[in-house]
Specification:
45% helix; 334 residues; 3-stranded antiparallel β-sheet; alpha+beta; single chain; 8-stranded mixed β-sheet
Length: 334
């Protein structure tokens, strides 16, 4: 390799670093230019012929400067190293029986449509369909740029209040589903020793068509040091199911190491919106009133249909990101 040139992984990392730093440098240059322009205009105030024009331009620049400085401060906040990564999306039906499974299906389609709007690709990795439609559990890969940064605040318990299609009396039921968003690790992030794995094969069960019970293609992988267990029974190929199960295991192990590292930085995490705890109730979707409430930031939007359709989810996502940035900025100034 010639001196001073980059190849392979080094070039990819340098490109990523440049892509992250370029917008920061541009905003910093803009802020510096605004300060210089303000200083020049202030000097012009002493010239009677230029005073009126300078005052007008000064008023405009001083009005724009705080927003530019805040944008720069936000860009300079420490970034989660996983923000730019793709993510593993896990949705599980919670309390509420069949209705919870239907709601889990609604949530998955909401994220699927939102992802399509962002230009991301969603690939189901593992799923367990419920008897009446929807899912008992679904795990999917969401690939694209900045996926984790936008979806990380979706982790937690989502609650729905509506009249189930199976309810003849018209009574409103409350059901729940749990969402977890895990950043996807690179090969270098997680090393799994094959001797730490206990791998079982068994016959797949449940919805899945006429071939689902014909072979022992389902896989259960237990990572003995951590106690994590992953199952996958979707494909008819044992090899494919094993590959997908390992993908999920790697993401969960990566999350575990991140949680342990962040536990040592508990004070810093207090500034974040929500704790990321999967047991935390974060949002309620109330169908009779057509509203969605995010309990962490006290935001209620009367746009339930748009949000469930995916097109309105961006407003919630942006509000959560803005609140997180505001809290972290405030924590820096304490």
């Amino acid at each position: 390799m010639a001196s001073g040139t980059l190849e392979g992984d080094e070039f990819v990392q340098a490109s990523r670093d440049y892509a992250e730093l370029e917008p920061v440098a541009k905003i910093a240059a803009d802020v510096k230019a605004m300060h210089q322009e303000i200083a020049g205009l202030e000097e012009m105030l002493s010239d009677p012929e230029m005073k009126a024009m300078a005052e007008d331009e000064l008023a405009e620049l001083r009005a724009r400067l705080p927003d530019a400085e805040r944008e720069l401060a936000v860009k300079l906040l420490p970034r989660d190293s996983a923000d730019a990564r793709p993510a593993m999306l896990e949705i599980r039906a919670g309390t509420g029986g069949d209705e919870a499974g239907l709601f889990a299906g609604d949530l998955f389609r909401m994220y699927e449509r939102f992802a399509a709007e962002q230009g991301w690709k969603v690939e189901p990795v593992s799923m367990s369909a419920s008897e009446v439609g929807g899912f008992k559990e679904i795990v999917a890969n969401v690939k694209g740029s900045g996926v984790f940064a936008k979806l990380k605040f979706e982790s937690g318990v989502h609650r729905v209040q509506r009249v189930p299609v199976t309810e003849s009396g018209g009574r409103i039921h409350t059901s729940a589903a749990t969402v977890a968003v895990l950043p996807e690790p690179d090969d270098v992030d997680i090393h799994i020793d094959p001797t730490d794995l206990k791998i079982d094969t068994y016959r797949a069960s449940g919805a899945g068509g006429q071939h689902v019970n014909t072979t022992d293609s389902a896989i259960r992988i237990t990572h003995e040091p951590s106690g994590l267990v992953v199952t996958c029974q979707d494909g008819r190929s044992q090899h494919k199911n094993r590959e997908k199960a390992m993908q999920v295991l790697r993401a969960r192990l990566f999350e575990k190491t991140r949680d342990e590292a962040q536990g040592a930085e508990a004070e810093a995490r207090k500034a974040m919106v929500g704790s990321g705890d999967r047991s935390e109730r974060i949002r309620t979707y109330n169908y009779p009133q057509g509203r969605v409430t995010d309990h962490r930031i006290g935001l209620t939007l009367h746009k339930l249909d748009e949000i469930i359709a995916g097109s309105g989810l961006g407003e919630l996502v942006d509000a959560l990101i803005s609140e997180d940035e505001a809290k972290r900025l405030a924590a820096l100034n304490e």
